[in-house]
Amino acid sequence: MTASALLAALFVGSFFHINLGPEVKAPDPYDIPTAYVITLSNDVRKEQTIDGVRPDYAWWTSFNEPVLEKCINEAFSQNRDLESALARVQQARAVFKETRGNQRPNIGVEIDTTRAYTKVGTTDTLNEQNILYGLGAANYEADLWGKLQKATRAAKETILASESAKNTVRLALASQVAKTYFSLRGTDKQLIVARETLETQKKTIALNKILYDNGKISELELRRSESIAASSAVQVSQLEIALGKYENSLLVLMGREPKEFITRDIPRGLTLDELPAPPDVPLGIPADMLRFRPDVKTAEQNYRTALANIGSARAGQYPTLSFDGLIGNPGRAINDPSNLFTGATGWSLAAQIFVPIFNAGKLSARAAQAEAAAQQAWSAYYKTVQTAFEETMNAINTQAKTEEILLLLEEQQKVQKRAYELANI
After folding, report:
1. Contact yes or no for 289/160 (Cβ under 8 A)
2. How far apart are CA 385 and CA 297, in angstroms?
3. Residues 6+ apart with CB under 8 A from 359
4. Which of 258, 329, 386, 399 is the most exposed place for a label (fewest CB within 10 A)?
5. Greatest CA separation found in the chain?
6. Residue 68: C-alpha distances to residues 106, 183, 270, 271, 364 (Å)
């Protein structure tokens, strides 16, 4: 077989590769129930279909609170954590583009120029000579064992993981903004009631002083009313501290400028009394929805990335085949650069095979690292699933029991109101 035929056979064969390493797939499915189940009392149970329940649903719109929606939209456009998550997605896309480029040939042009002066004989005459080399160069690494292909697959899975991580940040951000906003509005209401109570107690103190001066009540009763008022004043101060913290937290979540922490221009919409009832959690939500949680998807994509890295690391232990090609003039003296690509032209094609024989165990250690990383990703995935179930069941249970507590408090309010009416007959 001639050298040309051998090179041609190697070049054609380089377009085929053998996949090493495990199949890149999702972890084995968890044994999960068909639906989330929680025991609710008959007083709170409400029928609701689950057709509209989706993992990507903009749930905050169910509160029908325009100011809340404005705050969340502002957070989506200006929050620094979300900006970082978006930047990580762009970084992952750039890494994927670079990695995929390693599977393509590298083509370039090389131009070398040399000016030489040669003394002619014993005279002082100098012979000036310009030498230019114009070469076109190409290099291509054959992916015989799928090392580059698996590296590209790992980069692609990293993009998906960063996308899911971004969605996790986005979902958590919306949740935190809503929680902070409602806590802020609740503190507003508590502060109004606390201040009104304090003013009433100050009037009671003034009345008790008059009664005490006229001998109608003892000093004990006067001091007791002053003590109650002092406790109410402390409560007002504590609520003002909590209000400031909620305002600052909301400003941070919305990505406001530092100067706005001084003015504290916090939007406020409907009062708690004006807000509609919160949306009910549907019964029988498919537990399979858990797999669509962004944090679970991130863990799954990280596991896929780790599997692809195993294949790339194992392929690195095998021989590599690369091709180098050159075309251009062989180098000659010319005085006009326009003649660079004219005249005699030569070309060459070479194949190189590198077989790793001794590397002090570096390549096998790299493969072992990839396998250990895959085991970590596998464990992290199932831990994420467990945490997701824990959070979901706790949230459903808390929501159900909170509704029961609300009903009990409403009944207590009615009883106390009736007791007040009877006391003033």
Report:
1. no
2. 10
3. none
4. 258
5. 136
6. 53, 12, 10, 12, 55
- Closest alpha carbon to 95 in 296, 294, 354, 309: 309
Query: Looking at residue 48, what is its pLDDT?
Result: 41
Secondary structure (H, E, C), 328-342: ECCCEECCCHHHCCC
**Global confidence as pTM:** 0.75
DSSP for 176-238? HHHHHHHHHHHHHHHHHHHHHHHHHHHHHHHHHHHHHHTTSS-HHHHHHHHHHHHHHHHHHHH
pLDDT for residue 118: 72
8-state DSSP, 123: S
Element containing residue 141 per DSSP (H, E): strand 126-142
Neighbours of 135 (CB within 10 A): 18
pLDDT confidence of residue 25? 76
Kindly write down the DSSP assignment for every residue of 350-399, as one continuous string.
EEEEE-----TTHHHHHHHHHHHHHHHHHHHHHHHHHHHHHHHHHHHHHH
* Phi, psi angle pair for 125, to nearest 5°: -75, 135
- Residue 290 banded pLDDT, cuts 50, 70, 90: confident
Beta-sheet pairing, 332-333 with 346-354: unpaired
| Residues 346-397 pLDDT 10s | 777 788 888 888 888 888 898 899 999 999 999 999 999 889 888 888 888 8
Round to whole Å and give the CA distance between 195 and 187: 12
Q: What is the DSSP letter of 270?
A: S
Q: What is the pLDDT of residues 122-139, one digit of tens each?
A: 666 677 777 777 778 888
The half-sphere exposure of 419 on its side-chain side, counting CA atoms within 13 A, is: 6
d(CA 409, CA 109): 81
Specify burial of residue 397 (Cβ count, 10 A radius: 0-12, 13-18, 19+): middle
The pair phi, psi for residue 146, each rounded to 5°, is 80, 15
How far apart CA 152 and CA 26 sit, in angstroms, is 17
* DSSP-based three-state secondary structure for 413: helix
401 band by pLDDT with thresholds 50, 70 and 90: confident
Percent of the chain clearing pLDDT 90 (strictly above): 27
230-237, long-range: CB within 8 Å, 24+ apart, which pairs? 232/194, 232/197, 232/198, 232/201, 233/198, 235/194, 236/191, 236/194, 236/195, 236/198
